[in-house]
Amino acid sequence: MTHPKPAGRGRMKLAARCRVATEAPAFGMVVFCAILFNAALMGVETYSGLAEEYRLVLQGAENCCLALFTLEMLLRVGACADRPKAFFRDPWNLFDLAVVASAFIPLVRENTTLLRLLRLARVLRTARFLPHLRILLIAVGRSLPGTASFLFVGALVLYVYAMVGWVCFAKSDPGHYGSVGRAMLTLFLLTTLDGLTDAVRAGLQISRLSIIYYASYALLASFVLVNVLIGVVLNSLDEAREMEDEANRVPAPDTDPDVRARIATARRALDEIEASLPPAGERPERQLEASHTGA
User: What pTM did the predictor assign?
Assistant: First the structure.
């Protein structure tokens, strides 16, 4: 008979205890409040008078937040002690680990600007505790390929209209269409329809056909392309919501301690059965001896 290795049982017990702690609602609330408190500390540090007067207090509060975040990561790593690969499959775990661990890197701690940027990145960790914010961030990430295509088409439209504006209005309005760069900047500002009325009036003084130029540009750039971008983002938002629903639909195998206990018992039983079986090379010989004896 073989028994499970003590290290294996120890890892399972450690993972079970850490998992109970990390899955508790109070744990998430404490970490969420610590993230907001850390963000508030960064805001207070922007006031030079307060930062200088309460420098030791602010530094102590920052160290307490860092200690709490470190404890959080240790508990999350411990919750995956029985299956370490599962920890690295979660992108949020990797992001949290990178943000927290960077505070202990000597080169980062000596660079004040980089350290503040990494401390600011801790605010993004609130998405872990806010499902709707997490869905929005996932949607933004999934919309990047479509957004890149949209930007290419938008730049192409902007360049074509800028060249047409340079040809038609360069001599009459060199301040706005004296070069293709100025024309593109003017049209880009007109994308929001701000100042379009003044641009149309100035164009009508040059040629009545300019109304076609501005109307077609406003229709294409401000309505068609913007609606296409909105459609890309909404489609990515639906995909992100479906992904979140599928992730929540999958039952977690370790939320019930009884299930884990039954799995451990089944593993021990399989180990005992495997240990009681003869080696693979001896089975045919025993079967052959049994056949001769029967004969």
Answer: 0.55
d(CA 255, CA 117): 36
Q: How many domains is the chain built from?
A: 3
Q: Which residues lie closer than 8 Å to 237 by C-beta, 6 or more apart?
A: 135, 136, 139, 143
pLDDT in tens, 5-33: 444 677 888 888 888 888 888 888 898 89
Domain boundary among 79, 103, 128: 128
Total length of the chain? 295
Measured distance between the N- and C-terminal CA atoms of the chain, rounded to whole angstroms: 34
Q: How far apart are CA 142 and CA 243, in angstroms?
A: 11
Residue range(s) defining the domain that contains residue 281: 257-294
Residue at a domain's end among 65, 97, 128: 128
User: Do residues 123 and 13 share a domain?
Assistant: yes
290 vs 2: CA distance, rounded Å: 28
3-state secondary structure of 195: coil
